[in-house]
Amino acid sequence: MTSKVHAADVYNNSPRRPTTAFVALLTAAAFSISFLFHSPAHVQNEAILARCAALHTPVRPSSDFRTRTTSDRYVPGTRAVLVKNATIWDGEDVLPGDGRADVFLDGGIVKFVGDFSKSGLEFEGVEYDTLDAGGAWVTPGLVDMHSHIGSAAAPSLRGASGGGVRNGPVLPWLRALDTINTHDAAYELSVAGGVSTSLVLPGSGNAIGGQGFVIKLRPTVERTPFSKLLEPPFTYNGSGIEPANPPRWRYLKQACGENPSRAYSYTRMDNIWAFRSAYNEARKVKEAQDLYCAKAQAGQWDELADSAFPESLQWEMLVDVLRGRVKVNTHCYEATDLDGLVRLSNEFKFEIAAFHHASETYLVPDLLKKAYGKPPASALFSTNMRYKREAYRGSEFAPRILAENGLRVIMKSDHPVLDSRYLLYEAQTAHYYGLSASLALASVTSTPADVLGLSHRIGYIRKGYDADLVIWDAHPLALSATPKQVVIDGIPQLKPPHAHTVDKPAFLQRVPKTPNFDKEAKEAVEYEGLPPLVPRRRVKSVAFVNVSAVYTHELDEQQYTSGATVLVEGGEIVWTCTGTGGRCSERLQTVPSLEETVDLQGGVLGPALISYGAPLGLTEIPPEMSTSDGIAPDALMGVVPPIVGGEGTLVRAVDGLQFSGRDILLAYRSGVTSGITAPLHAGVIGGLSVAFSTGAAHKLEDGAIRKGITALHVSLAHVGQPSVSTQIALLRRLLKGHGTGDVKEYFDKAARGEIPLVVDVDNADVIATLLELKAEVEDSVGQGKMKLVLAGAAEAHLLAKQIAAADVGVILVPSRSFPHTWDQRRHLPGLPLSEDTAVSLLLSHNITVGLGIVEQWSARSTRFDVAWAYLDAGGKISKKAALALASKNLAHLLGVEHSGELVAYAGGDLLDISSKVVAVLSSDGDYVDLW
Ligand SMILES: *[C@@H]1O[C@H](CO)[C@@H](O)[C@H](O)[C@H]1NC(C)=O
Ligand SMILES: *[C@@H]1O[C@H](CO)[C@@H](O)[C@H](O)[C@H]1NC(C)=O
Ligand SMILES: *[C@@H]1O[C@H](CO)[C@@H](O)[C@H](O)[C@H]1NC(C)=O
Ligand SMILES: *[C@@H]1O[C@H](CO)[C@@H](O)[C@H](O)[C@H]1NC(C)=O
């Protein structure tokens, strides 16, 4: 027999004595009986030959995989499920015709896709449950290519294990599996967002951070991390060699650029050297193995008599990389680092499966094509950018540009950086900015499945695939699409009381049409990621034609079903003419001052929105202090120098304001024309916020500052020291008039209700204490009602009645909650896990509610947050109430006048993911800005 026969049957890359391998070999089906008659030395030699051959066994599914009738993940006792009348997008496309089909799931796998009534006798006698999809969209379970779920804990607690290790730049032997906590709060939430599978990676603080693992998110009977793994390599639990089981994919996390450099205070040059020296060690082991095997295969046993098979527990993972058995996932942003990694891949001859974050891959598509083997895929965020220098040139158009270059695109969460419950929203936004519908859906299903080497079983709804699918309440690319049911390994995951569904309107059941962003995408490349964002033109007199609705400043909507023509002079609507052609265009011809006519293609003139919550206007690249105002001192945490006022110091955000940053300009051109920002602070006393125009060029421009001092801000949190009760004691003392300097002046005003007091707080118990404190202060000061506003407020819904009674406002920051901290753990998750959302519940108590954001890159997506809040409420709130969340209500709560601006949204309503901002109309400023 030749060693090749064994090659398929033996796989072992962990240290193991040849005799053990031999025992396993005895069970091999293809085993030659004559083998048994060899002498012991021969036996050992044959085992070595088998092991040598096994080194070259390619990774692939086991030989009987294609004919499996039950999944290795099948849970005995699981009933079969018929998903009836589904509209199926199967991982590649909508099924031929109208997409309608039934899906039969049994044994943890997809057994049938088609018209079940025509399935014949095959399933006769099988008992099953029926899920009637009623024509709803059904997709494969979502696959998240970059997650730290279960590893970066939710809620985050000191004692929780994590994936960020700082023991050295090269740690290929570490395994994320060893940090996976099966009790994490995020699994249920992410499953409720349709995610069935995630690649859990170690952190990015090392050049080589360790081994990643693919898990299914559903709970298992065993309750162990190992039982969550999908296709774990057989060596991980010591079961080692199994004849029918060829090697399975392993996953490695690497990182270049800022993160490893920051962790070890070394340079990019050191980082690449760390890679090269590590891979060189692995190469030596690999070459020693190959030399050893060459001698064995040539029968030169004498030369091997005294030497053991060369191996290294430390380097075996990298040896496997060099043998092509590892999907290498590299966190890498900039052209400079991408170039280094592409050179590394060619120097050591290994393939890079994907660059993660990859903010500049769209600028260097040809470089990716030069990588060793297949060009790496790019695993991206859709709009989460500029959060550090390396992400500064990231573009929302990257997905489409990469796809146009024939490169693979994956949207990922980096959970909990983004809550993976909203992974699909990343695909929706990528689609909005120009990625085709099928590639957008593939970017969170079949493409990651393929790049993970698992497209033989996940990422598709096809016969023989794992029974992972999602029934959606809207087209999966429509905003707010939420699972009605999520099936993983054939097991429906949403069960009462956590299975609430609503019927979404018909317009959400179609693929949203997307705006044309060809020019913007071209400019993104032309300007190397920093295209100009300022308006193309500022004019006084514009006509908008084909307008389908005009909103009043009170947010009432006047619809024009057959279109209207609207004349705007100096930012003000002068007249509106129903219709587009004839009479209306004749009327336009009588306007000599008309500078431009803009076709809104059925779009609207709608309200401008306000951004609150992020340090918008105070920092450009948050970790870069030179781009930032910096952090306000806090007298409770340390001594504030007397020269600035000591404990009486109160900082004003208006003094640190900076204009024309990229996030601020992107907000402006997305219809978010005002920002309200508190000083950046880490302590309790935040300072005074400012309201400003996001479109202004500088502070001294007319209208740049809408209000220099808007509200007084404080932050309360469980940080240990000083205690929450100490923080409350401080507030009590200051509100009762015992402060000094500016602190006294503004806390006195807050106590008298002359300025809003905005408190960052999430925990319901702390909120309860604040409500008591408010009553106490009003009682003792006796000068009217305080204007108290709770910001953050994840647990506010628990006290809705009391908050309403105390006439306290709430700003939900972020608008879609996640239990990052203990203080947020009792958040209200919304559909499908709860019937109410925080927004709908608080509004039902007549509380004034606003929406906020945490990071400034998301300011531009404020109208999508509003749309989510509106659609998620399942009809419980009106559109007008939804629009107020990010306009009128925020203005009211933060003590500013609602600006008189209107925004022109082309191609649809402002809450549609189909529309695009083309103009801002400022009546105060007497102009119209056009893009
Ligand atoms: C499938 O669902 C659609 C929409 O509810 C319905 O019109 C149609 O009759 C259903 N078809 C079957 C075969 O039940
Ligand atoms: C190790 O895991 C594999 C794959 O899940 C399984 O088939 C095998 O039985 C396990 N072996 C042991 C010793 O637990
Ligand atoms: C108005 O816009 C809609 C949507 O783009 C389009 O279908 C319609 O033809 C337009 N009407 C006119 C008169 O341009
Ligand atoms: C909210 O306000 C409406 C209209 O003023 C009123 O009918 C309703 O009873 C109020 N709801 C609560 C919970 O106070």
From TrEMBL:
The keyword Membrane applies. It comes from Exidia glandulosa HHB12029. GO terms for cellular component: cytoplasm. GO terms for molecular function: allantoinase activity. Pfam families: Amidohydro_1. The chain crosses the membrane at residues 21-38. InterPro entries: Amidohydro-rel (IPR006680), DHOase/Allantoinase_Hydrolase (IPR050138), Metal-dep_hydrolase_composite (IPR011059), Metal_Hydrolase (IPR032466). This is Amidohydrolase-related domain-containing protein. One of its GO terms (biological process) is purine nucleobase catabolic process. The keyword Transmembrane applies. The lineage of its organism: Eukaryota, Fungi, Dikarya, Basidiomycota, Agaricomycotina. Keywords: Membrane, Transmembrane, Transmembrane helix. It comes from the Eukaryota. Residues 397-490 form the Amidohydrolase-related domain.
